Amino acid sequence: MLFNSLHFLLFFPIVTTGYFLCPHRYRWLLLLLASCYFYLVFRPIYILILFFTILVDYFAGLLIEQSQGRRRRLYLIASICANVGVLAIFKYYNFIAHSLESLTSALSLSLPTPPLLNILLPIGLSFHTFQSLSYTIEVYRGRQRAERFIGIFALYVMFYPQLVAGPIERPQNLLHQFREKHFFDAVRVSAGLQLMLWGFFKKVVIADRLAPFVNTVYDNPHGYTGVSFIVATVCFAFQIYCDFSGYSDIALGSAQVMGFSLMKNFDRPYFSKSISEFWKRWHISLSTWFRDYLYISLGGSRVSVPRWCFNLFFTFLVSGLWHGANWTFVLWGALNGTYLVAEMLIRRGLGDKPTPARRWWSPLITASKVALTFMLVCFAWIFFRANTVSDAFYIVSHLGTGLAAVPSQLNSLAFIKMNILLGRDKFEFLFALVALSLMIGIHILQIRFEVRNLIRKQPKWVRWTVYYAALVIVLFFGAFNESQQFIYFQF
Amino acid sequence: MIFSIPFLLYAIFIIATDPFNFIRVGSVIPDDVKTRTSFALNPCFWKMESYVKNPLPNLLLGDSRMQAISTTQLKNLTGDDYFNFAYGGATMREILDTFWFAVKHEKIEKVYIGLNLTVYSDYNITDRTKTYLTISENPALYFVNRTVLQSAVYATYSYVTATDLKLGVPSGDAETFWRHQLLDVDGGYFRNYVYPVRYRSELQQVAEHCQRNGITLTFIIFPTHSDVHGLMNQYNLAEYNLKFREDLSQFGVAYDFDFPNDLTANRQNFRDPDHTTGPVTESVTVQVWKGPLRDGRIL
Fold first, then answer.
1. Where are the domains of chain B?
2. C-alpha distances in Å from residue A235, one per residue of A210, A403, B190, B213
3. Which CATH number fits domain B47-126+166-298: 3.40.50.720, 3.40.50.1820, 3.40.50.1110, 3.40.50.300?
4. Facing residues of B272 across strands?
5. Is residue A425 very low, low, confident or very high in pLDDT (cuts 50, 70, 90)?
6. Is B3 in contact with A477 (Cβ distance < 8 A)?
7. Which of residues 45 through 104 in chain B touch A, CB cutoff 8 A?
8. Which of B7, B130, B194 is nearest residue A481 as measured by Cβ atoms?
9. Is B123 in contact with A417 (Cβ distance < 8 A)?
10. What is the ipTM of this complex?
């Protein structure tokens, strides 16, 4: 079930109303059934995969807690193998088979290649397996007690607001909330609905409106030149941010309405002044997952410098692979790993310096850092969005083509229409710019103020005007004609 | 609850007006008012919804020039029922999407596509068919569509005040309109002309589909006044004009009425540089569907 669908607009109030009317001791059951239904709408048979990982990790958690020494480790390995095995079969098998076939063909080896499987990727597989894995790892590390009640554990894995695209929760944050009694609180419910509305604004007004601009170029890059690639890539940078953070906001908001607190997944990432800062602000639940369970397990930064470089690079390589079974994602991950290694080495080379005193040019320095970080991130997005590696390299190698002629052609309507508007409607482009500016303005406000609190303090007529305006913009200016599935659903 | 009252009232308003006859529970606005408002604002939506209710195997696709062809005249000439799926200001995108839409709803036998160089261009990317296609997949979107809202407001105003809003009807005298159509509209198309590599490929797919399924595909290049020919030459598009004709002749039978001759030289034959008068349109219809060909040629 998509958040931006009529189905969800009916599902959500029914489930929320039922939640508050239901006696507390049965609420877990209501939410679990609702989450099952939420998942069944996609492809019913794949719920069996969810049940499999739930059963494996539920028993693994209990056995790990009851065991000592090597046995604990064995049960953890079993849990990891089961979860990674499911991922390997459903997500990576065909990718591995294709890659082997290409490799043997390139080496002129006549070796039998594994047959391809005709299976669709289950929605949210990467997310719920990682969430389930974080449970068994935390139990193993002694930081989380094993959940005795399978119903609550199942709900932890399947909780519908974050089931298909995160945030990837930690058991310490989420499990106990299912046992707490939540009361209807008008302020909290209102805040949750506001967050959902904000998420819908980012998704249907901005992200879905930018998608056609991006798809026009990236689905057929040959024939476009530098300025088109730059425009499409910048559009993608904002499309993916608004799409994914919009989804996260809807997830957080819908959970908040019922009284659940999910972790923040985005923190204005394009305001970052460095790549390392970007990764503390982008898809926070995933980057902290990899930090805590892979990077630190490899030794983190408490190793020699070459090993540190390897740990950073490898973690991001795996992160890239997590995003998709395609070499483009691996390259994207490798590029980000390279950025971080380079940043780390440069910082080490410069040594520890005291923070300089603020001067009149400090904002310019900050702006330059933000701009440079944004450019580096956008360059990496080329690999993330390109359909194939050859498309990605085509775009990269043609980024500069035709740029010198741009100033002299800006007075040509045909040039602007085909190369900057990318053949799309100028109203859509301008509206996207306006909506983006509004979003960025609110993000800037958020540096100083909690915007929802600001709105809450206003008189009722001001609050309702803001809500009506937001709803009208989402409903009547949402790009429903170009409705896109959430980008991260494919992961 | 109080917060949702405006939305409930709005929903009732849309149900009561139902500007495109999509909900079909009974509308307070009569169809003749909707034809002058909703149809004018989005003819694609209107016609697609009509076609779903009454699909026919013979289609007319194209822009306002094809729209001017009378299906009643065609019925009298050939005995066949035709659905005029042409739209004023249609783009290649709309023509192609409409063809595939029709193919999904009915076994098509004959397709006539009206094209001129101004339509056969990658520059025009408007696609009004998306509105209907999106709403038909998700009917709730009917209530949050700007065109539907605009149509509902216009239709209500027109009905209540008994006013014909004359949407899409040009203002000003004939000469002013002639110059505007020639220099601003056609001039804009010619100035920004882009040979349609992608549309050509998609048109080829249409031709291949027609060939595989025994569908008769015919193109008509409607006559335009010699002022348009002169403007096209000013923008050095003669080569593209030839290429356009070559492309069409490869895909199907193409009737060409748009070249220098007595018909196109005579201003009396035209309402504006791009549209012939009623009698000329009828004559073109007879020449294509019945013959003999007098003012045109087969490419």
1. 47-126+166-298
2. 6, 18, 30, 41
3. 3.40.50.1110
4. B275
5. confident
6. no
7. none
8. B130
9. yes
10. 0.72
